[in-house]
Specification:
- InterPro entries: SAM-dependent_MTases_sf.
- It comes from Sinomicrobium weinanense.
- Keywords: Methyltransferase, S-adenosyl-L-methionine, Transferase.
- One of its GO terms (molecular function) is methyltransferase activity.
- This is Class I SAM-dependent methyltransferase.
- The chain has about 240 residues and is an alpha/beta fold.
- It has a single domain (about 10-170, about 180-240), classed as Rossmann fold (3-Layer(aba) Sandwich), CATH 3.40.50.
- Helix content is about 25%, strand content about 30%.
- The protein is built from seven helices and twelve strands.
- It has helices spanning about 10-20, 40-45, 55-60, 75-85, 95-105, 140-150, 210-220, and strands at about 30, 35-40, 65-70, 90-95, 110, 125-130, 155-165, 190-195, 200, 205, 225-230, 235-240.
- Strands 5-4-3-6-7-12-11 form a seven-stranded mixed sheet, sandwiched between helices. Strands 1, 2, 8, 9 and 10 form a five-stranded antiparallel sheet that branches.
- The two termini are about 25 Å apart.
């Protein structure tokens, strides 16, 4: 799925470990190809259930059975499911620092792993939260991405994911149309760059997908798609289940 190898130091992991170990002095700075620099506060990544957006709370309420938390970050979702819901949770992330931070927070079944390389186990619930579908990178990879996730589901299993429709970020003309750059294959494909202290990543691809496009992609890959909840900022929670 990678078009080329990007030089991405473990910026997220460094930041999470700093916070977990009491060395919090700066936040993460993000920038995308369609937006200016923004601040990602480290405390937000360690939030508890009551501090989470409604969409995340709803996803955690719907989770059941054996759970895979893909792209777990600091492990806040996994911790809630394990400690409050008493569910069997496996957490994975490509960031070694994030995985170490999760272990320091008390998670045991947490591993450095790319979800697209994960195999051998099946789950009742797969979580892809905080725009987790972005791990797909490009819309052209959505078929292989969804097919692989489907292969990790038990019978009657579910994929819970949130994403956003970025159409609102493009200028509107007098006829109600939107000015979308012609170089993009799909307007939800953006380039991300992150910075923390003296570390900065190369741009890397991230995918935001509107619900109708997700619904069509799901159907093409043998998955039902249900809109569970809409947020306040053009975001939504969807549930995917096998036919």
């Amino acid at each position: 799925m990678k078009e080329k190898e990007h030089s991405v130091p473990d910026i997220i992991g460094k930041a999470l470990l700093d916070y977990q170990q009491g060395n919090y002095t700066e936040d993460i700075i993000t920038e995308t190809s369609i937006s200016e620099e923004d601040v990602l506060p480290l405390p937000y990544l360690f939030r508890d259930y009551m501090e989470m957006p409604g969409i995340e709370q709803k996803a955690l309420q719907l989770a059941h059975g054996k759970v895979l938390d893909a792209g777990c970050g600091a492990g806040s979702h996994s911790l809630y499911l394990r400690e409050e819901r008493k569910l069997d949770v496996t957490a994975i992330d490509i960031s070694p620092g994030a995985v170490e931070a999760c272990r320091l927070r008390g998670l045991k079944d947490v591993f450095v792993q790319d979800v697209m390389q994960y195999q051998g186990e099946k789950f009742d619930t797969i979580l892809l939260l905080m725009n987790g579908l972005g791990l797909c990178g490009r819309l052209r990879y959505i078929d292989s991405f969804l097919t692989h996730l489907k292969s990790l589901l038990n019978k009657n299993g579910q994929i819970l994911l949130d994403s956003s429709d970025l159409l609102y970020m493009f200028d509107e003309d007098e006829d109600g149309g939107r000015w979308i750059p012609s170089h993009a294959e799909y307007y939800g494909e953006i380039e991300f760059r992150i910075r923390y202290k003296d570390l900065q990543s190369d741009p890397f691809p991230w995918l935001y997908i509107d619900y109708n496009t997700l619904q069509n992609a799901a159907a093409a890959n043998g998955l039902n798609c249900e809109l569970i909840m809409e947020g306040e900022h053009y975001d939504y929670l969807a549930k995917l289940t096998a036919f």
